From TrEMBL:
One of its GO terms (molecular function) is protein-glutamate O-methyltransferase activity. This is protein-glutamate O-methyltransferase. Its EC number is 2.1.1.80. InterPro entries: Bact_Chemotaxis_MeTrfase, CheR_C, CheR_MeTrfase, CheR_N_sf, SAM-dependent_MTases_sf. GO terms for biological process: methylation. The keyword Plastid does not apply. It comes from the Bacteria. It catalyses: L-glutamyl-[protein] + S-adenosyl-L-methionine = [protein]-L-glutamate 5-O-methyl ester + S-adenosyl-L-homocysteine. Residues 1-21 are annotated as: Disordered. It comes from Jannaschia seohaensis.
Length: 293
């Protein structure tokens, strides 16, 4: 899938509104989404724009999508431009999503990374580069902790989650989930890594032992500059490339591979293809790449 498929997208928390965009409006909005966030959205999907942005019109006192696009293009639209990009993104994620990546880490990845010195000579740094609500980063830390316990070592670990959405980063920092959201965690993992809310409500929090290893920062991958970790051992870039057009995908992959330590590993989503790997990167398994030089 190289474009957003609005039929696969659940209703967005920012809600819907009464105005309807014209194709000219959505062409302008799609061009802005591409320019501001590298997002590749088919302008023909009028309903998608209406669902995602309808409420933004109301909140800005605009009665048409044309007036909203005018605002985005104006000097007064600086703050709204960020919200606009955020409203067009999707945060779908889950614990232990794409299990094959975790199987590979358990069978191969953790041993190889630690053999290089990660976690021992220096803190093993894991960067979840489009982290959504943190499930991905916490799952990876759980997998590493389990490996660590089996190997009876005490690895030093740093988890860094970044995303362009401030709202979703707040959720990641809190690390609080519903029973439905943690259904990817086995009973044994829940016992060890999750605390149930004391009020008996349907809420579960990641244990401080894991939360304290993590920090969550805002980073837009399409305009990263020098932001973000300088060197990481494992970078998760999963299920975000699908939102970008091919030149942006190539630029983002190159920028992240440049932040990998030698022999560091990059993972992308299983449905995402990296058409041009940067020099020195080799594929070691499905959607898993290692920096060889
Ligand atoms: C579908 S979720 C994937 C979450 C997680 N990586 C996973 O695979 O479960 C995509 C995430 O990418 C974020 N995102 C979209 N465009 C981004 C960008 N330009 N920079 C950083 N994050 C972005 C969204 O806010 C969203 O949280």
């Amino acid at each position: 899938m190289s474009r957003l498929d609005p039929t696969a997208v659940p209703p967005h928390p920012l809600g819907t509104g009464p105005a309807h965009p014209t194709i000219q409006d959505t062409q302008r909005l799609a061009a802005l989404a591409l320019r501001l966030g590298g997002l590749h959205i088919d302008p023909g999907k009028l309903d998608f724009f209406r669902q995602r942005l309808g409420k933004r019109l109301a909140q800005n006192g605009k009665t048409s999508f044309r007036a909203y696009a005018d605002l985005l293009e104006s000097g007064a639209g600086t703050a709204e431009r960020k919200i606009f990009i955020e409203a067009l993104t999707t945060h779908t994620t889950s614990f232990f999503r794409e299990q094959k990546h975790f199987d590979w880490l358990e069978a191969t990845g953790w041993s190889e990374l630690t053999a290089e010195g990660a976690g021992l000579a220096w803190p093993l740094r894991i960067w979840s580069a489009a982290c959504s609500n943190g499930s991905e980063l916490y799952s990876t830390l759980i997998s590493l902790k389990e490996h660590d316990a089996r190997a009876t070592r005490h690895l030093r670990v740093e988890g860094i989650g970044t995303d362009l959405s401030q709202a979703i980063l707040r959720a990641a920092r809190q690390g609080v989930y519903t029973a439905n959201e943690i259904k990817g965690l086995s009973e044994a993992r829940r016992k060890q890594f999750v605390l149930r809310a004391k009020d008996g409500s349907d809420r579960y929090r990641i244990v401080p032992e894991l939360r304290n290893l993590c920090r969550f920062d805002p980073i837009n991958l399409t305009e990263m500059g020098n932001d973000g970790p300088s060197l990481a051992d494992l970078i998760l870039l999963r299920n975000v490339l699908i939102y970008f057009d091919p030149p942006t995908q190539k630029r983002v992959v190159a920028a992240l591979c440049a932040r990998l330590r030698p022999h560091g590993v990059l993972m992308t989503g299983h449905t995402e293809t990296v058409s041009q790997l940067p020099t020195g990167m080799v594929q070691v398994a499905s959607s898993i790449y290692r920096k060889e030089s």
